[in-house]
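G., before I forget:
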Amino acid sequence: MLELSAIDSGYGETQVLYGLSLTAKAGRVMAILGRNGAGKSTTLKTIMGLLPARSGSITFDGKPIPTRAFDVAKSGIAYVPETRDIFPSLTVRENLEIAAKRFGGADAEWTLERVVDLFPRLGERMDNGGMELSGGEQQMLAIARGLLMNPRLLILDEPTEGLAPIIVKLIHDKLQELKAAGLSMIIVEQNFGFATSLADDVVIVGKGQIVWTGSAEEIRADEETQHTWLGV
Amino acid sequence: MTTDLGFWTLQTLNALQLSMLLFLLSIGLTVIFGLMHFVNLAHGALYALGAYIAASVASVAGFWAAIIIAPLGVALTGVLLYGGLIQRMRKSGPMAQVLVTFGLIFALLDLTRILWGDLALAMDTPALLSGQVNLLGVTYPTYRLFIILLGGVIFTALALTLARTQIGAMIRAGVDNDSMAACLGINVERLFFVVFCVGCALAGLAGAVAAPLLSVTPGMGLQILIPTLIVIVIGGLGSLKGAIAGSLIYGFVQTFGAVLAPQLASVLIYALLAAVLVIKPVGLFPAKG
């Protein structure tokens, strides 16, 4: 579904990714693991068009991915960034509608009602400002906003970062529901247990390249790789 | 003098009139700053251009045609500037933007000299607005009331657009976080272009309505630039609330300063600016919280 081949990317003069290649398959959940600074978030930003790939190619459903972020979004990829990036000047409802009105429609799978069914908490907070939410609520809103884009691929960067264990479990359960419904996802995550219990496929990024590829079961059993590349 | 209610009413109206003129100028500049982090010092020159176009059009087609054509003409100039210069300068950082748009001030200034000459132009107020009205015991020029009203109408229209419409939500989202807005499928560049053109049109409108009050000179754009920049620094970047608050503060401090403490008037607004920078460096109502 999404294929990166030999991607070089980075920030300004600093190169972070060195010929990174990976393939995410449709209808599956892929976890991208790795230590801080390995290049996980850079990979996601490069896919989204927020950082330009200096060389290499990215294809989505066999076609070259657009280079500008808003075209990437239109091609069917939703992005939930590490910092959640809720719009503070918009209410919860407006944060959701801004996605729903662009990607909704009569036959849309995800509607405002449906994301509120998924995260009832958001329903109670509809008229609150984006910044009046707790960290957990912001994460729910960021995921809900992504779903309202009715994406074919949902990309999440560190969805559990800074959240209380009870919220981590809630987010886990919700993502599990989405997986069961057949949504393709790529999850970058530091929380090894969280990531490997959700994912079908796992890749490990180290020093800007993919250093390990396999299934979630395999990485759970491979303590040596965990120790070498993840410090688990 | 200061115990006379008429004095306060008169000065309040004067302050409001100055505020509304500044508001028309600062709103475009502040949203362009806020949305795209673009520093357009030539905004004042567009105001002067608006005044010149209005004065020329008014002499042949009358006032009402002038205040419609001037904003459109300035918006068209904005389109050319955007395509020719600003789009290329988007990523080049504030220093280069300041230098280029500062240079643009002089280019536009000389352009007005070439086209209209060095002599000041005058523009008549239309018959409908040239009288005086009696308001709370004060006789006040109808035309100045018209400016206050026009500012109020534009403020209300912009406030409703920003608060209630989808494009308003997109602009607020873009000012908050342009990368995330793009990731939601919003073409932030195109949004910026639209906002830029509306900002230019409002600068042109400000020039057009100011023309009958002031004499139209090539330097009027430079004269208004500093007050406009003070307004957006006091008000905070990127927000409508900041632009209106900054404009009102500037208008009232300047007007009442000039009549109550004439010796201090010229430094008062700068002292206020310094105080805001010390106490709240981001301004009173910045868009980014």
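Chain B has one domain: 5-279. Chain B is about 75% helix and 5% strand.

More on Monday.
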